Amino acid sequence: MLIRLLRRLLRSDSAAVRSEALQPAPRTGPERERAQELLRQATALLQSGQLAAAEKLLGEALDRVHDLAEAHFQMGELHGRRGEPEDAADCYELAVHFDPGHVPAHYALAALHKSQGRHTQAAEHYKRIVESSPRDAAAHTNLCFALYEMAAYEEAREHGERALAISPKLPEAHHNLGLVLREIGEPARAVRHFQKALELAPRAEMAAGLAHAYRDLGRLNEAIASYDRALRLKPGLGDAAINRAYACLLKEDFADGWAQYESRFAATGTKERDFGLPRWQGEALEGKTVLVYAEQGLGDEIMFASCLPELLARAQRVILECSDRLAPLFQRSFPQAIVHGGKKEDPEGWVGQHTPIHYQVPIGSLPRWLRPERSAFDRSAVYLHADRAVANDFRMQLAAGHKPVIGLSWRGGTPKTRSHLRSLPLELLTPLLKEDALFVSLQHGVGSSELAGAAALRTFPAATDDLDRLAALISALDLVVSVDNTNVQLAGALGRPVWVLLSASPEWRYGSRGETMPWYPSAKLFRQGGDRRWEPVIRQLMTAFSEWIERSQARDR
């Protein structure tokens, strides 16, 4: 009864109630001695698997001395064995309340938080451990990983290096530090740590980490071999399966890449949607209706939509499901299709009004059948069409005499999609902003403080929040300069010139080298070099811009 009361008080919203009720008991006396003896007996019973008997003795010990931290910890272990994580967490919390330096309880709480993806909370417990036990290499290693998951990369590196200074042969420390080094743009160092981790403990995750680092360095054959090793060690490792596909696509091995890309749903733990129809596997479509449904992000939907003109030419009828944010643009661009805008979580009953339907296919699977090699990409087609009236209105607003009108965006992705590598500070574009041109911000979610040093930038917040208006704005521009984000996909699909500023570890769609990409003939790529710095990219950009201005002026004469 007392233990349950303490747990309720622990969960109380009132700090005063918690503080008063959870005061420590006297530190000495016969009651504490008897409680300690009961705890020793209970621990032995727990170790031998006698859970009921152990629980009874632990309860008796805590009835005598309610602040016995080790008894609360052992009760947590008991609940953990029974598969009762919430009760276990309460007991561990009581243990660290009464003994803030109880390392096993902090470890147990950190493990529970980590298992449920709560890395911030896990990190707090690992920090408590290293405060009391600064030479605990395992705690530094686990803290390194938690901070990596939180995108706190510099702090993560510090703890990874401290772990290895204490225990140089700890394989998990090498692996976790390798993960961090990849994210901060040091893949060559990451390779060495992943190799050492594999030497010490050959595990699938370590082989996959090594493959990621090889891929970042452009060593794609070695990356694929390492992904294969990871899959031999653990055939169901999704991280290795999907990234092997990306490596193949980076080197433009489309046959192998698209086949492996079909593992993306299982690899990412995403449930593949099912409308109860046969999956299209490249069969002839004369006289047939095919349902193409949405997956992944907006940029992916736009890029894969480049396959739709060919599908429309083959099938009698195409039903296209897409994000509701893309629906107006897709309805205008693919008038032969039946376009349904919605969200991927919507009920699937809407398809009933369009029967009969013979096949279904996720939009990301179209390239497997329509883009088996580079020569199969359409090098001339513009497949998205903006609203002409809105585009003309933007042209009138942006009329700048003979000045070119340039759209800019400088941030891309999210923390989970490596935004820190794909984005650059706006101030790095200052040399471009000094040119004799009119500049327009295409950056979604930009704030006034971010634009404080870029007064030359025109903004259209209503357009950057609305994809159809954004398409019209991009259509009114002479050039788009952007990092890897949805603006690149829109500009390329609209056939507008787009210059893409790429990190040294680009997404697979951009390929591993060269200034062009198969998806968009109007795109020109500017890649970071081995130093992984943006300044050389900006210098290349400025040289190309001067040449572009000269050509434009020559055409106008």
Estimated helix fraction: 40-55%
Largest sheet: 6 strands, parallel
Number of helices: 28
Strand order of the largest sheet: 7-6-5-8-9-10
β-strand amount: 5-15%
Distance between the termini: 92 Å
- Rg, Cα atoms, Å: 29 Å
What's the β-strand tally?
10
Would you tell me the structural class of the helices and strands? alpha/beta
Quaternary: single chain
Q: What value does the average pLDDT take?
A: 91
Residue windows where pLDDT falls under 50 for at least 5 positions: 14-18
Principal-axis shape: globular
Task: Describe, in plain words, how this protein is organized in 3D.
The chain is 53% helix and 8% strand. It has 557 residues and is an alpha/beta fold. The protein has a 6-stranded parallel sheet, with helices on both faces. Strands 3-2-1-4 form a 4-stranded parallel sheet, with helices on one face. The termini are far apart.
Key features?
557 residues; alpha/beta; 4-stranded parallel beta sheet; 28 helices
Helix-strand blueprint:
Layout: H1 2-10, H2 15-21, H3 30-47, H4 51-64, H5 69-81, H6 85-98, H7 103-115, H8 119-132, H9 137-149, H10 153-166, H11 171-183, H12 187-200, H13 204-216, H14 220-233, H15 238-250, H16 254-261, H17 264-268, E1 289-293, H18 298-304, H19 308-314, E2 317-323, H20 327-333, E3 338-342, E4 359-362, H21 366-370, H22 388-397, E5 405-409, H23 419-422, H24 430-433, E6 438-441, E7 457-458, H25 461-464, H26 467-475, E8 479-483, H27 486-494, E9 498-502, E10 523-527, H28 535-556
Helix pairs in contact: 3-4, 3-5, 4-5, 5-6, 6-7, 7-8, 8-9, 9-10, 9-11, 10-11, 11-12, 11-13, 12-13, 13-14, 13-15, 14-15, 15-16, 18-27, 22-26
